[in-house]
Specification:
The protein has 264 residues and is an alpha/beta fold. The chain contains ten helices and ten strands. The strands form two sheets. An eight-stranded parallel sheet has the order 3-4-5-6-7-8-9-10. The protein has a two-stranded antiparallel sheet with strand order 1-2. Bound molecules: NADPH dihydro-nicotinamide-adenine-dinucleotide phosphate (NDP).
């Protein structure tokens, strides 16, 4: 599994495991199963209410841990991160993200200033954002001169974010794909199924390999050891130009599953 170099000089595994909707009581078991199959990055958030279990799961490992600042804590980021660190049982997280810009609230620039200070204080080794559009990134960068290392956004074959992805590549910000499997919905797409058949692999592996081929970081969520093992093994699948062209053709303006960032 490869690493991606962030704009702050640190490295981050390209492939990680998502944990949204994994209950706190099951998170330690699922995370340990993921680490056993080769995952080295675990994505959680205060909003997922499973940081205690995730922390128990990564305890004693070298796993890269990401957590996120929830929307009602933009003016209270230090206390919010302290709560996350206590639940996770660590002194610092590898990556701390602003979960949503919530433009209607108008506090994401203030939150970004807090995150810059939290990185300086050593409580977050790298800092970034999630669900930011280019206009939100520009405002945060202009106010601080500090580039987010990562922007974690909805991205999957039916919603490929070509424009925002290009903007971030030009600006040296890593794009990390959330709901990378389209919450499972893209796995039955005939084009994906055909590519999977051609390579003798599973549809989920094809989709994960597609994200990695585009140079993205990707955090599929899986609840079972079988799915975790299958997803970890996607890292060695190489897609050809025909495969990439067929998946590029699945992009749709209407493919978004989650909320539109301006709507919050
Ligand atoms: P995903 O696109 O990762 O899809 C998860 C679904 O795919 C589950 O139903 C899972 O089933 C299924 N699945 C996983 N692996 C396989 C496989 N090999 N074969 C068949 N089915 C499979 O959806 P998520 O929405 O969970 O997104 C991933 C992660 O991104 C989240 O867990 C979270 O960490 C992050 N995220 C971040 C957001 C943000 O705002 N920043 C928003 C949403 C997500 P099963 O569980 O049964 O294995």
């Amino acid at each position: 599994m490869t690493d991606i170099t962030l704009n702050d000089g640190r490295t981050m595994p390209a492939l990680g495991m998502g944990t949204y909707k994994i209950p706190d009581s099951q998170a330690a078991t699922v995370v340990r199963a993921g680490l056993d199959t080769g995952f080295r990055l675990v994505d959680t958030a205060a909003f997922y209410h499973n940081e205690r279990g995730v922390g128990e799961g990564v305890h004693g490992s070298e796993a890269f841990v990401t957590t996120k600042l929830w929307n009602d804590r933009h003016d209270d980021a230090e206390a919010a991160l302290d709560e996350s660190l206590a639940l996770l049982g660590v002194d610092a997280v590898d990556l701390y993200l602003i979960h949503w810009p919530v433009p209607s609230q108008g506090r994401f620039v203030a939150a970004w200033k807090y995150l810059v200070r939290l990185r300086e204080a050593g409580k977050a080794k790298s800092i970034g954002v999630s669900n930011f559009l280019a206009r939100h990134l520009e405002r945060a960068i202009d106010a601080t001169g500090v580039m987010p290392a990562v922007n974690q956004i909805e991205l999957h074959p039916r919603f490929q974010q070509v424009e925002l992805r290009g903007w971030m590549e030009e600006n040296g910000i890593v794009t990390q794909s959330w709901s990378p499997l389209g919450q499972g919905e893209v796995l039955g797409d005939p084009a994906i199924v055909e590519i999977a058949r051609k390579h003798g692999r599973s549809p989920a592996q094809v989709v994960i390999a597609w994200h990695l081929a585009l140079g993205l970081s990707v955090i599929p969520k899986a609840g079972s050891p079988a799915h975790l093992a299958e997803n970890a093994a996607a890292a060695d699948l190489t897609l050809d130009d025909d495969d990439l062209a067929a998946i590029a053709a699945l992009d749709s303006q209407d493919g978004r599953i989650g909320p539109e960032p301006m709507s919050m």
